[in-house]
Amino acid sequence: MKRFFNIIPGKDAACILLYGEIGEYDRVRSGDIARELIEAESASRQIDVRINSIGGDIFTGMAIFNAFRQSAADITIYIDGVAASMGSVIAACGKPVKMSRYARLMVHSLRAVLMETRAKWRRLRDAEKLEDTLCEIYAARCKKTKEEIRSEWFDGKDHWFTARQAVELGLVDEIYDADPVPEDSTPEQIYKIF
Fold first, then answer.
1. Could you report the per-residue pLDDT of 109-166, keeping only the tens digit for each?
2. What is the percent of the chain with per-residue pLDDT over 70, rounded to a whole number?
3. 104 φ, ψ (degrees, to nearest 5)
4. Contacts for 25-29 with beta carbons within 8 Å, 24 or more apart?
5. Which helix (H) or strand (E) segment is 105 a member of?
6. Which alpha helices (H) appear in the chain, and where do they start and end?
7. Taking the model in full, what pTM does it have?
8. Catalytic residue positions, numbered
9. Residue 19 in contact with residue 5, Cβ under 8 Å?
């Protein structure tokens, strides 16, 4: 089975990589992440979680979110590439959340891929309650009401944010890249910087 994450011990902090799609089948799995978190907590009081995820299953994501949120460790979340959908929900529990100026964050309404099973239809009936939970998470992070979050971001569209926009909205606390790249830089100037 391929693993998209691991734990990396460090001098000052342990690091957990949350790279890949979130779900229970050959993806970033909640049980594996919880086990990695427990191992990291025993090694370090400071844990860095690095995210590059397009999202995935809401229930798996909620289990990961709650494991991080309930941890006694100081957890800093870094968005390295993308934190989309459930990836952005998980990022919301960081204390603090830092984002690369080149990364993106995406929020949208709950989506379900339905197969013709009763269990899937039952889950769809609970979609409004699940969306209410997600709105509550984003509202607490952005210091807005659930109703504001629902009307702004739960409209059936994908809402993509740059690092600067995410900071302005309160979705992240800061941009972690040390050297700013001027917005009017030419491709040649950007190439020289890196």
1. 886 544 456 666 666 667 788 899 999 999 999 999 999 999 999 999 999 999 999 9
2. 78
3. -135, 150
4. 26/1, 26/2, 27/56, 27/57, 27/60, 28/4, 28/53, 28/56, 28/60, 28/64, 29/60
5. strand 104-107
6. 30-43, 58-70, 86-91, 118-125, 127-142, 146-153, 163-169, 187-193
7. 0.81
8. 85, 108
9. yes
